[in-house]
Task: inverse folding
């Protein structure tokens, strides 16, 4: 799979059975994103605090393969929410992603509904959620559509609801690498959307969020794993690690990330949360 179509179309082509090997290489490093964000706040309190009549309804925007709810469960969410049922709606344009997410969900989660759609296209009748979250999810949405995407997510919450978007900033590996790759190998590609644009889009929807910034590193010594991770970062497996290392802005960026025989990449990630007025 190469640099064909828009970033959103290439994302969809990779979130498919054919892209499973790339997905697995990606999560050899990216699993740290989920460990960090789950440790970053008391998500059980967020869920309990927005529950009504013993249940909380959650919209998981761009659910991917369900790494976020799976990590919450692994870290003891079932005990932490007490008896609260967490009824989750899975939203993703990829049927592969929805099936993967469904297959990893465990108590306290129960699937309430599935929406095979882009968040921008979610029918207006779907709403009233207590909680909506999008975790490392909105990068492929074109910068000129992120306003519509976040506005739709905000509108899906009930009065008094809680929203969360966890998204890498322009200073993080995801955005820096995608920018360098675009300059060197894919000048026609639609740029990735960063946390700054998400925050501007929320401000345009009159949301005043709280923001906590996480800083951590991810790395691997195995070049094949690093190659798979980097290719998946840009949804393009046509350029080898060797070629990335030797050309233009990507080569210069990677030279700064060398760590012995392997690589370490710096992540700077915003945890953006807001409460809807009751
Ligand atoms: C990295 S995954 C998200 C990870 C996920 N939050 C988790 O917990 O594992 C990105 C997902 O975004 C989805 N996606 C791409 N464009 C989208 C859009 N416009 N609206 C909603 N989801 C989208 C992709 O299909 C993919 O499944």
Result:
């Amino acid at each position: 799979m190469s640099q064909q179509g828009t970033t959103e179309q290439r994302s969809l082509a990779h979130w498919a059975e054919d892209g499973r090997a790339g997905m697995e290489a990606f999560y050899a490093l990216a699993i740290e994103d989920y460990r960090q964000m789950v440790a970053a706040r008391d998500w059980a309190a967020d869920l309990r605090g927005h529950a009504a009549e013993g249940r909380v309804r959650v919209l998981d925007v761009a659910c991917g393969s369900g790494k976020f709810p799976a990590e919450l469960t692994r870290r003891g969410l079932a005990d932490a929410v007490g008896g609260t049922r967490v009824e989750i709606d899975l939203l993703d344009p990829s049927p592969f992603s929805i099936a993967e997410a469904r297959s990893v969900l465990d108590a306290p989660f129960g699937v309430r509904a599935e929406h095979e759609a882009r968040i921008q296209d979610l029918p207006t009748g779907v709403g009233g959620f207590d909680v909506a979250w999008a975790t490392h999810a909105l990068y492929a949405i074109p910068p000129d559509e992120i306003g519509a995407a976040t506005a739709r997510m905000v509108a899906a919450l009930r009065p008094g609801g809680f929203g969360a978007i966890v998204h890498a900033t322009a200073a993080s590996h995801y955005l820096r690498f995608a920018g360098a790759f675009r300059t060197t190998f894919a000048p026609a590609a639609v740029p990735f959307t960063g946390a700054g644009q998400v925050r501007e889009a929320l401000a345009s929807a009159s949301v005043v969020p709280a923001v906590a910034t996480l800083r951590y590193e991810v790395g691997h010594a195995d070049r094949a794993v690093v190659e798979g991770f980097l290719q998946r970062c840009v949804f393009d497996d046509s350029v080898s690690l060797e070629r990335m290392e030797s050309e233009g802005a990507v080569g210069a960026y990677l030279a700064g990330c060398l760590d012995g025989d392997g690589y370490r990449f710096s992540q700077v990630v915003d945890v953006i949360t807001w409460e809807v007025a009751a």
